Amino acid sequence: MMSWFASLLINTIALMVVAGYFDAFHIENISAALLASVLLSLFNVFLKPLLILLTLPVTIFSLGLFLIVINAALLSLTAELMGSSFNIDGFGMALLAAVIISLLNMFLTNFVLEPLRKKRKRN
C-alpha cells in the first residue's frame, strides 16, 4: 500500500513538472495533479492491459514503441475526464508528455525512491 502512495506521489510530481515546462499541458493545482495521478493509476491498472492485449500485433511490430501511444491515449483520457482542471492541447503534446512523465517516473523511482527503501531496510 505504501508503494502505491509513493507511486502516486512520484506521478503527481512528474505531472506538475511537465505542466511547469509546457504551456500546452496545464494542470490547475496540486489537488488536480493528485486526482489526475489517481485516475491515471487506475487506468494503468485496469485499462492498459486490455489495450496492450488488443494492440499486441502493432506493439510487437513496433518493438514496444506503441506502448508510448497507449500511455499518451490514457493521459488524454485522464485529461478529458478531469475537465477544465487538466488540459492537454493535442495528441502530440500528450505523446511528448507521456515520454517525459515515463522518464521522470523512472528517474525518481530509481534514484530517489529505491535508495530510500534500501536505507529503510538497513535500519
TrEMBL record:
Ranges that cross the membrane: 29-47, 54-79, 91-113
Keywords, ordered alphabetically: Membrane, Transmembrane, Transmembrane helix
Record-linked Pfam families: Phage_holin_4_2
Name this polypeptide is given: Phage holin family protein
Organism the protein comes from: Fictibacillus norfolkensis
Taxonomic classification: Bacteria, Bacillati, Bacillota, Bacilli, Bacillales
